[in-house]
Write a structure and sequence with these properties.
The protein is α/β, with parallel strands linked by helices. It is globular, with a radius of gyration of 21 Å. It has a nine-stranded mixed sheet, with helices on one face. Helix content is 44%, strand content 10%. Strand 5, helix 8 and strand 6 form a beta-alpha-beta unit. The two termini are 29 Å apart.
Length: 382
């Protein structure tokens, strides 16, 4: 559970940057192409789809220019993502130059392409962190969710070698109906490997990939989302922390579920989005957006310098508003819905994400029932 008093140096940097509208953290989305076909992916495209796209991919030279201008504007933290970033043809050329610029770099990857050569590169030029998404605990689960065969053991081998090489690794595991059977095994795996694990069970509707998928994805019903969110918490943190979480839900003051560091306000733990205030996301086809889950607002980067695009994004992002009903909802402190969620669920940032409304109702119902069971068991022991 996140402590309300927790306030790290990084948190302080983000907070000050947000107040001063400095783009302290950015994401470079190199490509939508991936060797996996995950059922819930929000961005994946085939090479043919990219070739037919109306806009070209950002080139190596353009990324380097953007990076230099972003550095001059204050960017320190950089996340490289995709698609699968290691598939991007000029990845290592770009990565080496970005390291030289002094960024603190994290990389999102599915881990399947990390071979001995990649580990050698990463050992010489280590990132701040390598974020590997672990989609299951068996080859069978990977095939069911990601459409790839004989991959889990490859990812496992890569993780072992990365740890041996001293490269910082963090695990993410997107939980869906296709891999929920593996959640306990995934948690055990992370514990045995002594790795940080985050397990988001909310899957954004993939409106960037398909504008018609508003409010839809390969994901849990609100009822199952609530159930598995609590079950994951119990398995990760134990019965005592789980009990604390139940009380927090009852008292309507819940630490946010897994979110990016740039989304969370360290002062009180709630999601007070810094997107468009201190963070940005640049898509593979040259748009600057507040975050990667949003289709709007977005600024065309082609023919525009970074600072001009950033200032425009800050101005537009500051005008984004949520539903007035959400701001007065009694469940606001446990809901943590944001503009990106409202947009993906309803088609507008001012829409009411009913999926979350239902989830909060179920969370409270489960918490009430679980606390009654716990009290009953405690009385029996007395």
């Amino acid at each position: 559970m996140l402590s309300k008093n927790r306030f790290s140096v990084t948190d302080m940097i983000y907070s000050k940057a947000a107040g001063m509208k400095i783009p302290i953290s950015g994401t470079f989305e190199l490509s939508p192409i991936c060797n996996f076909t995950c059922k819930m992916c929000y961005v994946r495209k085939t090479q043919r789809e990219v070739d037919l796209h109306l806009r070209p991919m950002v080139t190596l030279e353009q990324w380097l220019r953007i990076a230099k201008e972003a550095s001059d504007a204050g960017m320190l933290f950089l996340l490289i993502t995709g698609g699968e970033p290691f598939l991007w043809p000029d990845f290592w050329k770009l990565y080496e130059e970005l390291i030289k610029m002094g960024f603190l770099i994290s990389i999102n990857t599915n881990g399947s392409l990390i071979d001995d050569n990649a580990i050698e590169y990463l050992t010489k030029l280590p990132p701040k962190r390598l974020n590997i998404t672990l989609y299951g605990a068996s080859d069978e689960t990977y095939e069911e969710l990601c459409g790839v065969k004989n991959v889990f053991h490859k990812v496992d081998e890569a993780i072992i070698k990365l740890k041996q090489a001293g490269i910082p690794v963090k695990l993410n595991s997107s939980v869906t109906p296709s891999n929920v059977k593996d959640i306990e095994k995934i948690i055990t795996y992370a514990r045995e490997k002594d790795l940080i694990l985050e397990m988001p069970s909310y899957m954004f509707p993939p409106i960037r990939r398909d504008a018609d998928r508003v409010g839809e994805n390969h994901r849990f019903t609100p009822e199952d989302y609530a159930k598995y969110r609590l079950e994951i918490y119990r398995l990760q943190y134990g019965e005592e922390k789980y009990k604390e979480m139940l009380y927090s839900i009852r008292d309507k003051s819940v630490p946010p579920p897994v979110v990016e560091e740039s989304c969370r306000d360290p002062l009180d733990g709630r999601i007070r989005c810094r997107a468009g205030k201190a963070t940005f996301w640049i898509t593979w086809d040259g748009y600057m957006a507040p975050c990667g889950m949003m289709t709007d607002p977005k600024i065309d980067m082609y023919g525009k310098d970074f600072l001009s695009a950033w200032r425009e994004l800050v101005e537009i992002s500051g005008k984004v508003s949520l539903s007035g009903l959400c701001s007065t909802c009694p469940n606001m402190k446990i809901c943590h819905a944001c503009a990106a969620i409202a947009l993906a669920e309803t088609g507008t940032t001012e829409g009411i994400p009913i999926y979350f409304c239902k989830t909060m109702e179920v969370l409270q119902s489960i918490a009430k029932r679980e606390l009654e069971n716990i009290k009953g068991k405690e009385k029996e022991r007395l």
